[in-house]
Amino acid sequence: MQKIRNNEIYGGVNSEVIPEVEPVSPYKSTNEAVCEKINYHFNQGLAFVAGVSLALMMFLIVYNSVVRVFATPFVGTTEVAGWLMAVTTAFALGYTQFNHGHVDIKIVTDKLPTLGQKISSAVVQVMSLLFYAIVGWHVVTYGFELIINNSLSETMGVIFYPFVFVVALGFFGTAFTLIIQLYQTLTGEVRGGKNGS
Predict the structure, then answer these.
(1) Which of 43, 81, 86, 163 could tie 95 with a disulfide, CB 3.0–4.6 Å?
(2) For the purposes of burial, counting CB atoms within 10 Å of the CB of 106, is it exposed (0-12), middle (13-18) or buried (19 or more)?
(3) Does 122 score more than 50 pLDDT?
């Protein structure tokens, strides 16, 4: 079907024939939009926590360096800084993946046809998805082992398994992002991120 649209040109009226676009199923687009919105806000939240964690780690190290001159420094600086670094790294993974910030060498794949590029991208995404999912699962398993064994940190003597589960959340967040990007690769859609590719 076709519909007529009137455009005003230099004070006159010009009739332009425009083909009518076939409506897209609202259910598919809505589900995709919801998943992408959840993925976006989830990774934005993790990135914010990673930034706060990094700032706290920097403050702790600087504070410990200054206090060392006048008094006894904080004993658990090394442990706390290590935990904050782990949270910073794990929580930044999903945000970086969402924005396509990881190193991507395309010297060979750029020379492939479109189908070959899609297949190579899908293979890399599947392998990355499996890697992050397996690592996240092993980190969770390690956290439960710490609970069972009543493990405490060496210097401060406090429980630290909550940080382990938090790190696992970062890996699972990255895996969730890869699931969405894999779906977009297989369906030919490339959305999200600053680069949009």
Answers:
(1) 43
(2) exposed
(3) yes
Quote the DSSP letter at residue 152.
Answer: -
- Number of other CB atoms surrounding residue 96 within 10 Å: 16
Burial of 72 (0-12, 13-18, 19+ CB in 10 A): exposed
Please tell me the distance from the alpha carbon of residue 10 to that of residue 132, in angstroms, as a whole number.
Answer: 60
18-43 pLDDT, tens digit per residue, is 444 343 333 456 777 788 888 888 98
Written as six digits, the tokens of 161 are 């398994």
Report CA dihedral (126, 132, 137, 142) to the nearest 10 degrees.
150
- What number of residues does the chain have? 197
CA dihedral 102, 106, 109, 110 (to 10 degrees): 130
The letter for the amino acid at 59 is: F
SS3 15: strand
Element at 100 (helix H, strand E): none
Residue 72 DSSP symbol: P
**170 vs 141: CA distance, rounded Å:** 15
Which sequence spans correspond to the domains of the chain?
Answer: 35-187
